[in-house]
Amino acid sequence: MRSGRVLIVEDQLNFRKGLIKMLQGGDLGWQVVGEAGNGQDALVLLDELQPDLVLTDIRMPIMDGLEFVAHLRKSYPDMLVIILTGYKNFEYAQAAVRLGALDILIKPCTEEDVRQIMNKASERFYDKYAQQQKQQLQLQLQQDQELRAVLLDLPYEQSTMERLTAGLAHKELWLLHMNHEDLTSKAYGKRDMSLIQFAFSNIVEELVKGEGLEAQLLLVEHDSFVLIAESNQIEEHVQEAIRNACYEYLKIHLNIVSMGIAPSVYELAGLYLLTKEAFSEPMDSKAESGESTSGLLLSLNQARVREMEVQLMSAILVGQEDSLQLLLNRVLAELSLTSPDEMRIGALSLSIALHGTIQKQFDPDDKHALARIPNEMPQIHWTHKEVLNWAAEQAKHFILQFNQWQVSKSDNVIERAVKYIEEHYNEECRLTDVAAHIHLNPSYFSVVFKKATGDSFTRYVTRVRMDKAALLLRNTDMKIFEIACAIGFDEPNYFTNVFKQQFQMSPKEYRSGKSTT
What we know:
Elements: E1 4-9, H1 13-24, E2 30-36, H2 39-49, E3 53-57, H3 65-75, E4 80-85, H4 90-98, E5 103-106, H5 111-151, H6 160-168, E6 171-178, H7 180-185, H8 190-210, E7 215-221, E8 224-230, H9 236-250, E9 254-261, H10 268-276, H11 291-318, H12 321-336, H13 340-362, H14 384-408, H15 413-424, H16 431-437, H17 442-453, H18 457-475, H19 480-486, H20 492-503, H21 507-514
Parallel strand pairs: 1-2, 1-3, 3-4, 4-5
Antiparallel strand pairs: 6-8, 6-9, 7-8
């Protein structure tokens, strides 16, 4: 899943570069694809860059932001727009609403202001992305059904001929057929095959994608798939990798044979049947009833993985473990209400989505082609409870990876926390305040902080305050209650008690020179 693409339109160079620097790290899920100093230059870039979001100032030379957005809306009515302005002007706000702006960012703004508004943009972007995925899925389902019908010599609409002919032009077809004896020896039923088909399709797609190839895998019958790729792309090492992975993960031998360059649509059924006959295994001359339904379910399961990845990315951008945990809890709860067969496929879908997100977001350097495929899959003989426990462990591992990633992306997270405490010890300075400042979950920050400093957060802040109090007692004539207020204590008597616990004497005794330190 790709990051959102943003175009920044701002005539103040320093502010524009500052925004670019904030967004360029990728932590907010956006990639800056272009910049412009006025609306006229930005219009030229729109068609070339195709951004998902535009951040534009209002007051600019040549063409201002409002005129620019008005032009933009003629060609891109649904593009996300955020208005930048240095004026809290009601008329500007009204104009922004009329032009369909997502929000207004008032300058000057803090990094947190930018983060909040970009998170809002991310939520809208991923909602829009999810809708586009659903539309693409519907189209893909229709095309899969049409091609499956042609291959199996089933009735189909003549209007599909042109679409299929164009889609298959110059493409090479490969038949991937699961070994009949392996399937028979394991006594897989039709319901069991749904899990096998789903796992196999993910294995093949990941290996093909890992080779940098674009190919489509279509379930034709319960044991047979057709892989559609550009000519001469599926080389011997790719075929071997698919065979090996199929046996490693599923314990099923796989036959792979080229069907050649796709012929005319009228000849596809004959070619498919002829290629299947090359295997010395008993074959049904007609497709089993329900093959069309199996293909539909497989496509829907693949779509479930993509949808889950979108939801995970959206939650990650919020930067809080709680958002992810709520999402995963909901998925696990929904999973517990499904039938045993649906539960196994749902658990595997969740695991593949989690592994895929780990690879893309947390460990992009992991180039292993099957990094998205879990080492262990839900087994057909597992009980309802065993499948749920397995899925819960997958979710737990994902949360752990998320927390580790949060810390690793901010190498100086503890230093930043300590600096914040040093600057705010004389205020309330709560754990939640510091955690929010460094964008970590409070409970996780508490654990990380204690591990790094050896003190709990509360104990550390108290020690900092008492050290400041001791400094003031030694070097100033401030009254005790004034020192208490200066270091964040509202109640002088409470301050005195805490000071005694730290230094084994009262503030007055410490000032009198009785300190042994």
